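#dry-run=false #mode=assembly
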Amino acid sequence: MAATTDNDEEQTEERSEEQAEKPAPSRTPRPRGRGPIATAVSVFGELLITAGLVLGLFVVYSLWWTNVVADREANKQGDRVRDRWAGGPGELNTKDGIGFLHVPAMGGGEILVTKGTGAKELNHGVAGYYQDPIKSALPQDKEGNFTLAAHRDGHGAKFHKIDKIKKGDAIVFESRDKWYVYKVYSTLPETSKYNVNVLDPVPKESGAKKPGRYITLTTCTPVYTSNYRYVVWGELERIEKVDNKRTPPAELD
Amino acid sequence: MYGWIWRHLPGNAWVRALLSLVLVFAVVYVLFQYVFPWAEPLLPFNDVTVDGQ
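#status=ok
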């Protein structure tokens, strides 16, 4: 395609030069001998090049810069949460985050969990728990589904390696005084974005039949697009108390 | 277009090159800071939640 465009441009340029040369030999020649059409074509070409560069920059922005910004923001918010935890008992302020998610299968690093799954929240490089369309349960609730979403690419890309999570892997949620250890029992590599049933308190599609304490991770798939959703389900296995050294449970070693 | 800008920059070739670089950085800054954040939610690359709409 690029070659054709080049040819067209060259031809137009040649033609315009001929046209410019033929009439009015008495007029003073244009500087550099370029006619208006040739100028227009060259400006058009430069605009195309510019558009290409801008699109390239957009990719750089999406896949790199948003991660830089989001990680900075997530670290700041995470530090605030840890600081408050260190200060002893206090109100559970859901605005800064309720705790951290650890998924060894997705590699090291903790993911701050905050309320809400809107772009504004998730762009801070966190995982958000759903408020809408189905309200998420919280880990300390007696039963229900703790449903989370995070970005696959850009803005921290916290669930980028969600496809590395296999059945039997651990998902650990760390709150101020408890470690909630979940075990993955089902994954759904591709589903429609309208499939809100995956967030049900008892997610039937995962094979769950009776009420329990579930966790659901959702993000987009395939990578770099948002055509479908990827879902991972886990069920609570046990709860450990946080000791004063915050020793992580065996799953995180 | 770029030729026109180059011809209208003041100074010798070095000064012009420096000014061009400054212009490029200014454009990239405006894109990253204002244009891309505005355009991003309008593009369907980054929706990660399931919802009924």
